[in-house]
Amino acid sequence: MKRFKKITTLVFAILFSAGASLAQQTYHLSGPVEMKVSGTSTIHDWDMVAENGVSGQGQMTIENGKLSKISSLSLTMNVESLKSGKSAMDKNAYAALNADKHPKITFQLTEVISISAAEVKAKGKMTIAGNAQTVTLTVPYQISKNQIKFNGKHDISFSQFSLEAPTAVFGTIKTGDELTLSFQTTFSPKN
Q1: Can you tell me the distance from the alpha carbon of 130 to that of 161, in angstroms, rounded to the nearest whole number?
Q2: Alpha carbon of 92 to those of 6, 54, 66, 81, 123: distances in Å?
Q3: Does residue 51 contact residue 78 with C-beta atoms inside 8 Å?
Q4: Rg from Cα positions in the chain
Q5: Comparing 146 with 134, which gets the higher pLDDT?
Q6: Cβ atoms within 10 A of the Cβ of 135, count?
Q7: What pLDDT score does 175 carry?
Q8: DSSP string, 92-127
Q9: Average pLDDT in the 163-169 region?
Q10: CA 46/CA 30 separation, integer angstroms
Q11: CB proximity list for 1: less than 8 A, separation 6 or greater
Q12: For residue 20, what pLDDT is reported?
Protein backbone atom coordinates (compact mmCIF):
# COMPACT_ATOMS: atom_id res chain seq x y z
CA MET A 1 0.00 0.00 0.00
CA LYS A 2 2.87 2.39 0.85
CA ARG A 3 4.45 1.65 -2.51
CA PHE A 4 1.15 2.44 -4.30
CA LYS A 5 0.95 5.80 -2.46
CA LYS A 6 4.54 6.65 -3.44
CA ILE A 7 3.88 5.78 -7.09
CA THR A 8 0.63 7.79 -7.07
CA THR A 9 2.40 10.76 -5.48
CA LEU A 10 5.20 10.53 -8.07
CA VAL A 11 2.72 10.40 -10.96
CA PHE A 12 0.87 13.47 -9.63
CA ALA A 13 4.17 15.32 -9.16
CA ILE A 14 5.21 14.56 -12.75
CA LEU A 15 1.83 15.59 -14.17
CA PHE A 16 1.78 18.78 -12.10
CA SER A 17 5.31 19.80 -13.14
CA ALA A 18 4.53 19.07 -16.82
CA GLY A 19 1.37 21.17 -16.60
CA ALA A 20 3.23 23.98 -14.85
CA SER A 21 5.85 24.15 -17.62
CA LEU A 22 3.06 24.80 -20.13
CA ALA A 23 1.26 27.30 -17.94
CA GLN A 24 0.27 30.59 -19.36
CA GLN A 25 2.45 33.45 -18.23
CA THR A 26 2.03 37.21 -18.09
CA TYR A 27 4.49 39.10 -20.30
CA HIS A 28 5.10 42.83 -20.38
CA LEU A 29 6.65 45.04 -23.01
CA SER A 30 10.32 45.58 -22.28
CA GLY A 31 13.07 47.29 -24.26
CA PRO A 32 13.96 47.77 -27.01
CA VAL A 33 10.73 49.05 -28.56
CA GLU A 34 10.25 50.87 -31.85
CA MET A 35 6.92 51.90 -33.34
CA LYS A 36 7.11 53.70 -36.68
CA VAL A 37 4.52 55.33 -38.93
CA SER A 38 5.65 55.96 -42.52
CA GLY A 39 3.89 57.86 -45.25
CA THR A 40 4.22 60.11 -48.26
CA SER A 41 3.56 63.74 -49.07
CA THR A 42 3.66 65.92 -52.16
CA ILE A 43 7.30 66.82 -51.39
CA HIS A 44 8.88 63.78 -49.67
CA ASP A 45 8.36 60.51 -47.84
CA TRP A 46 8.34 60.75 -44.04
CA ASP A 47 8.66 58.68 -40.86
CA MET A 48 7.55 59.28 -37.28
CA VAL A 49 9.12 57.02 -34.65
CA ALA A 50 8.18 56.28 -31.04
CA GLU A 51 10.82 54.64 -28.88
CA ASN A 52 9.22 55.74 -25.60
CA GLY A 53 5.64 56.16 -24.44
CA VAL A 54 4.69 52.60 -25.44
CA SER A 55 3.38 49.99 -23.01
CA GLY A 56 1.88 46.54 -23.37
CA GLN A 57 1.26 43.18 -21.85
CA GLY A 58 -0.13 39.79 -22.73
CA GLN A 59 -0.93 36.29 -21.52
CA MET A 60 1.16 33.86 -23.60
CA THR A 61 2.44 30.30 -23.47
CA ILE A 62 5.79 29.05 -24.76
CA GLU A 63 6.02 25.31 -25.37
CA ASN A 64 9.19 23.57 -26.59
CA GLY A 65 10.77 26.91 -27.51
CA LYS A 66 7.79 28.02 -29.62
CA LEU A 67 4.84 30.27 -28.95
CA SER A 68 1.84 27.95 -28.55
CA LYS A 69 -0.91 30.21 -27.21
CA ILE A 70 -1.82 33.88 -26.83
CA SER A 71 -4.84 34.48 -24.62
CA SER A 72 -4.55 38.25 -24.55
CA LEU A 73 -2.29 41.00 -25.86
CA SER A 74 -2.61 44.77 -25.69
CA LEU A 75 -0.46 47.74 -26.66
CA THR A 76 -0.85 51.43 -25.88
CA MET A 77 1.17 54.27 -27.40
CA ASN A 78 1.08 57.95 -26.55
CA VAL A 79 0.37 59.85 -29.78
CA GLU A 80 2.84 62.58 -28.84
CA SER A 81 5.63 60.03 -28.41
CA LEU A 82 5.74 59.84 -32.24
CA LYS A 83 8.53 62.14 -33.46
CA SER A 84 9.61 63.04 -36.99
CA GLY A 85 12.51 65.31 -36.09
CA LYS A 86 10.52 68.29 -37.41
CA SER A 87 8.37 70.06 -34.82
CA ALA A 88 5.99 71.63 -37.39
CA MET A 89 5.28 68.21 -38.91
CA ASP A 90 4.77 66.70 -35.45
CA LYS A 91 2.30 69.46 -34.56
CA ASN A 92 0.28 68.86 -37.77
CA ALA A 93 0.27 65.11 -37.17
CA TYR A 94 -0.93 65.48 -33.56
CA ALA A 95 -3.72 67.80 -34.74
CA ALA A 96 -4.77 65.31 -37.46
CA LEU A 97 -4.83 62.51 -34.88
CA ASN A 98 -6.87 64.61 -32.42
CA ALA A 99 -4.18 64.05 -29.78
CA ASP A 100 -5.76 66.60 -27.43
CA LYS A 101 -8.99 64.53 -27.17
CA HIS A 102 -7.52 61.07 -27.89
CA PRO A 103 -3.93 61.04 -26.59
CA LYS A 104 -3.40 57.28 -27.05
CA ILE A 105 -3.35 54.77 -29.90
CA THR A 106 -4.29 51.26 -28.76
CA PHE A 107 -4.32 47.70 -30.04
CA GLN A 108 -6.31 44.95 -28.33
CA LEU A 109 -6.04 41.34 -29.56
CA THR A 110 -9.48 39.86 -30.28
CA GLU A 111 -8.72 36.56 -32.03
CA VAL A 112 -5.71 34.36 -32.77
CA ILE A 113 -6.21 32.79 -36.20
CA SER A 114 -3.03 30.70 -36.23
CA ILE A 115 0.39 30.34 -34.62
CA SER A 116 3.19 28.66 -36.55
CA ALA A 117 6.82 28.13 -35.59
CA ALA A 118 7.72 31.58 -36.92
CA GLU A 119 4.63 33.79 -37.15
CA VAL A 120 1.28 34.67 -35.64
CA LYS A 121 -1.83 35.56 -37.63
CA ALA A 122 -4.38 37.41 -35.51
CA LYS A 123 -7.16 39.97 -35.47
CA GLY A 124 -7.36 42.90 -33.15
CA LYS A 125 -9.10 46.18 -32.49
CA MET A 126 -6.90 49.17 -33.31
CA THR A 127 -8.12 52.52 -32.03
CA ILE A 128 -6.74 55.76 -33.46
CA ALA A 129 -8.25 59.17 -32.62
CA GLY A 130 -11.19 57.44 -30.95
CA ASN A 131 -12.03 55.41 -34.10
CA ALA A 132 -11.79 51.63 -33.66
CA GLN A 133 -11.24 49.28 -36.59
CA THR A 134 -10.60 45.54 -36.75
CA VAL A 135 -7.28 44.73 -38.41
CA THR A 136 -5.78 41.38 -39.37
CA LEU A 137 -2.03 41.10 -38.81
CA THR A 138 0.53 38.49 -39.79
CA VAL A 139 3.49 39.01 -37.47
CA PRO A 140 6.83 37.16 -37.45
CA TYR A 141 8.19 36.32 -34.00
CA GLN A 142 11.29 34.88 -32.34
CA ILE A 143 11.86 33.38 -28.91
CA SER A 144 15.15 34.32 -27.27
CA LYS A 145 16.00 33.63 -23.61
CA ASN A 146 12.32 33.39 -22.62
CA GLN A 147 11.55 36.68 -24.39
CA ILE A 148 9.12 36.95 -27.29
CA LYS A 149 10.17 39.37 -30.03
CA PHE A 150 7.57 40.54 -32.57
CA ASN A 151 8.74 42.41 -35.67
CA GLY A 152 6.31 43.35 -38.42
CA LYS A 153 4.43 45.92 -40.47
CA HIS A 154 0.89 46.64 -41.50
CA ASP A 155 -0.69 49.05 -43.99
CA ILE A 156 -3.55 51.31 -42.93
CA SER A 157 -4.93 54.65 -44.10
CA PHE A 158 -6.10 57.90 -42.57
CA SER A 159 -9.53 57.41 -44.19
CA GLN A 160 -9.88 53.92 -42.69
CA PHE A 161 -9.98 55.64 -39.28
CA SER A 162 -12.21 58.51 -40.48
CA LEU A 163 -9.31 60.98 -40.41
CA GLU A 164 -8.22 63.59 -42.90
CA ALA A 165 -4.59 63.42 -43.98
CA PRO A 166 -2.61 66.42 -42.68
CA THR A 167 -1.74 69.36 -44.89
CA ALA A 168 0.71 72.23 -44.46
CA VAL A 169 1.53 75.62 -45.95
CA PHE A 170 -2.11 76.51 -46.64
CA GLY A 171 -2.82 73.12 -48.20
CA THR A 172 0.01 73.22 -50.75
CA ILE A 173 1.78 70.29 -49.05
CA LYS A 174 -0.47 67.26 -48.76
CA THR A 175 0.12 64.00 -46.96
CA GLY A 176 -0.91 60.80 -48.74
CA ASP A 177 -3.78 58.75 -47.32
CA GLU A 178 -1.80 55.49 -47.09
CA LEU A 179 0.37 54.71 -44.06
CA THR A 180 2.62 51.84 -43.01
CA LEU A 181 2.90 50.89 -39.34
CA SER A 182 6.16 49.11 -38.48
CA PHE A 183 7.02 47.70 -35.08
CA GLN A 184 9.74 45.92 -33.17
CA THR A 185 8.73 44.82 -29.69
CA THR A 186 10.10 42.54 -27.01
CA PHE A 187 7.89 40.96 -24.34
CA SER A 188 9.51 39.56 -21.19
CA PRO A 189 7.99 37.44 -18.42
CA LYS A 190 6.49 39.57 -15.67
CA ASN A 191 8.04 38.80 -12.30
Answers
A1: 9
A2: 71, 21, 42, 14, 30
A3: no
A4: 21
A5: 134
A6: 16
A7: 84
A8: HHHHHTTTTT--EEEEEEEEEEEE-SSEEEEEEEEE
A9: 78
A10: 27
A11: none
A12: 38
